[in-house]
Amino acid sequence: MLPRASIHDRLRSGSPALAAWCGLPEAAIPALLAREAFDMVVIDTQHGAVDFATAVRATALIEAAGKPAMVRIPVGDFAAASRYLDAGMSGVIAPMINTIEDARRFASFMKFPPVGERSWGPHGALALSGLQPGDYFQKGNGLSVSFAMVETREALDIIDDILAVPGIDGIFIGPSDLSIALSGGTDMNPASAMVEEALDHALARARAAGKFAAIYSATGERAADLVRKGFHMVSIASDTALLRAGAQMALKAARA
Ligand code: 3PY
Ligand code: MG
């Protein structure tokens, strides 16, 4: 198989990337979704039930389909970011980045010196990239993307500072948590007018900084709106949601 384009090149290609989102603890699921027309697959270890070994198995299977594997780490678990990069993941999404210090700590585990302090040990990444160790060290920082999640008022207030942190490649909006924050804890509506305004602002700031803007969407229809707005990457639903929607559709047809 020909080596695939780097994730940076894919995100800069001008054609928005659509990501699958997996939280079930079974590597065969992301492996299957990687064979559909998604551009990449995200493993969610914040709200999903996937352990490290399962995510590593999934990484090899997603890469075997010629797609980049990405992960969302649990809140504050920045050391996990380096471990997933070592395993060969191409991108990490860190939730609840609410201070400059959060963004700096995340970037430090994502990038080798001099940008960050990532420790050497990319065993899976060498096998999957086919690069020699010295080459991987030189190119490594450009082979992976670091997405800082913007999903609170605090993050919105300092969005330009987060985007300016060396080693942060972009922002990833969490519209559900953002809706809870912007409503003062009274509502969960990822498509509210307040969220809409906030995500337009965040997208514009990311573009002005020359960095990537990504966002989660619950449905394909909503993903189409977000693609039209100009997000570089939009994730769609989740393995659980797709499974439930498929089951409900089939049952409805059977009972009609
Ligand atoms: C959010 O919408 O808050 C997310 O974190 C998306 O998964
Ligand atoms: Mg969230």
How does this model look, in words?
Helices cover 49% and strands 15% of the residues. The chain is an alpha/beta fold and 256 residues long. It has one domain: Alpha-Beta Barrel (TIM Barrel). The protein has an eight-stranded parallel β-barrel with strand order 1-2-3-4-5-6-7-8, surrounded by seven helices. Strand 1 (17-22), helix 2 and strand 2 form a beta-alpha-beta unit. Helix 2 packs parallel to helix 3 (52-64) and helix 4 (78-87) runs parallel beside helix 5. The protein starts with 6 loop residues before the first helix and ends with a helix. 46% of the residues are buried. The model has no long low-confidence stretch (mean pLDDT 97).
List strands and helices in order, with pairings.
Blueprint: H1 7-11, E1 17-22, H2 28-34, E2 40-44, H3 52-64, E3 69-72, H4 78-87, E4 91-94, H5 100-110, H6 123-129, H7 133-143, E5 145-150, H8 153-157, H9 159-164, E6 170-173, H10 175-182, H11 193-208, E7 212-217, H12 220-229, E8 233-236, H13 239-255
Parallel strand pairs: 1-2, 1-8, 2-3, 3-4, 4-5, 5-6, 6-7, 7-8
Residues 95, 151, 174, 176-177 line the site of magnesium ion.
Family: Belongs to the HpcH/HpaI aldolase family.
InterPro entries: Aldolase/citrate-lyase_domain, HpcH-HpaI_aldolase, Pyrv/PenolPyrv_kinase-like_dom, Pyrv_kinase-like_dom_sf
Domain HpcH/HpaI aldolase/citrate lyase: 26-244
